[in-house]
Amino acid sequence: MAGTRQGAPMTLERESRSIEYKREMTELRKIAQTVVAFANGSGGRILIGVDDATRAVRGLDPAAIDELLEKLPVSLADQIQPPLFPQIFEQTINSREVLIVQVFPGGQKPYYIAAEGMEKGVYIRVGAHTRRAEGELLEELRLLRSRLGYDEAILPDCSIQELRTELLPPALRTEKGLLSLDIARPDTFSGESRPTRGGILMLSDNPEKYVPEARCIVSRMRGDSGRNTIETIDIQGHLPHQSDAAVDVLSHWLGRNPAIQKSRYSEQDFILPLPAVREAINNALFHRQYSIPGAIKIAYYADRLEVFSPGHFAGPFIQDSLGDGTSYIRNKVICLVARRMQLIEKRGTGIRLIQDAMANKGLAKPRFIEGPNWFKVVLPFGPQNAVGAGEQSEPAILALFERESQLTSSDVCRALGVSKATAVGYLEKLRQKGRILRAGKGPKTHYIVSAAV
């Protein structure tokens, strides 16, 4: 939640992966499901007494708060397994009393609703919604019970002979070296060393045999919006190869800069700094959630490059904290091997590298956008203060509509880092083009996507 100066009303964030609003207490079962989802993820808070549609603080009667403070802890303890005890307290927001349920990331995942059992009672957050975990997502959570990440699990039908050990430094090419990096682990039943998912992803020529999501699609798009594709290249193979191949393709496209008039023999310049491009691609390849179906998609538009990853950001997504050095590791094996192969530097430097490389070239700030079950990095081609910067903002605003049914000018302010007047100007230009519609009046003014788009 973000506040204003002392005495001014507090502005509440939109519902998200870590925020849920309830106008009043309705079903204890649904509260329990959301608590489970937060505990299975990166944590979160439920605010009871806030309208989930308008984010208006309605508050609760003192008697209702007293009743919930007594009933809710007992109800959650009875409904959830393993036992989970979130913090429950009241807080004054905008002069009204609100009940807050603060849930921290659980250490015994997966948590589930006892009456539904582990097969059907495990819930996760997908954007601003609570959903039942199934398939690969459920398996990933189960692995956490054994303290194993998704990429640390062995593949019993796979042999270490399928690994390209020559890609590793010489001292790590032995079986002992593979075991030390968890590229391989002993099979519980046979005792033989078997590759882990992370090992296969980093060192196998055909990782898609065992991890179908191990692919990267690079597309050149026509114009600055839509899905009109000029050229598409499907890249497979181990992750270091995917990284090199994707950067190689993009370096050819990014070198075609019509604004640069040089001799054909002069050193080539690029629309974007290649270190930022490589880092954005490596972040997607090494940190994505491989249990989520879908390929990594890299789209080259007329005014920007987008790198799309299935699955949410590896940790809590706090826009203002991106690039501050905080690091969240989802794929332990992949990241450890990548570091030993000198594909990544020390933890927590990737986003800062992208930000600095863009700034050093005088380009607009990169944008980091989290959707319901995806994460996107957007690298604009134009300078920060160029004429027509509003045109470059349009794809970013339309991308926000991919995860929200409606937006306010304040939402655009926070996402793009611009003033409210500038945000309103951007929105009005989109409205005049027929891309969005304006609804409501005064403080309730908001924008929705036009049905014609």
How many E strands? 18
Low-confidence stretches: 2-6, 258-267
CATH architectural name of the largest domain? 2-Layer Sandwich
CATH class of the largest domain: Alpha Beta
Number of domains: 4
Helical/strand content category:
alpha+beta
Compute the CA-based radius of gyration. Answer: 24 Å
Number of helical regions: 13
Q: Please state roughly what percent of the residues sit in beta strands, choosing from under 5%, 5-15%, 15-25%, 25-35%, 35-45% or over 45%.
A: 15-25%
Kindly, what is the distance between the CA atoms of the first and last residues, rounded to a whole number of angstroms? 32 Å
Q: What is the makeup of the main sheet?
A: 6 strands, mixed
Order of strands, main sheet, comes to 12-11-13-14-16-15
Mean of all residue-level pLDDT scores: 85
CATH topology of the largest domain: Heat Shock Protein 90
